[in-house]
Design goal:
- The structure is a single chain.
- With 88 residues, the chain is mostly helical.
- The chain has one domain.
- 88% of the residues lie in helices and 0% in strands.
- The protein has two helices and no strands.
- The longest helix is centred in the last third of the chain and has 40 residues.
- The mean pLDDT is 93.
Length: 88
């Protein structure tokens, strides 16, 4: 059962896990920059570079999640069908 689970999770997990981590990092970017501003370590709350970095991280995570969803809907489904056929 463990190998089957691994076989069904790994194909889309390769993209989904980094996407989730990157989305979390993007979510912390703006509060981090606000705290740095309040602590006096920055002159502006958000610079164009901060916003550009945030949007880049968010866009990459969205793309990775879409890729993972496609793999899960197409590739993982075929793998699952083959596993079911072979277990009969």
């Amino acid at each position: 059962m463990g190998f089957t689970t691994l076989l069904l999770v790994v194909p889309h997990g390769i993209f989904e896990i980094p996407a989730i981590i990157m989305a979390g990092a993007a979510g912390f970017k703006i509060p981090y920059e606000i705290i740095r501003y309040l602590a006096g370590k920055k002159e502006q709350v958000l610079t164009k570079e901060d916003i550009k970095e945030y949007l880049t991280m968010a866009l990459i995570s969205i793309i990775l999640i879409v890729i993972a969803a496609w793999i899960e809907a197409n590739v993982t489904l075929k793998i699952a069908e083959e596993v079911i056929k072979s277990s009969k």
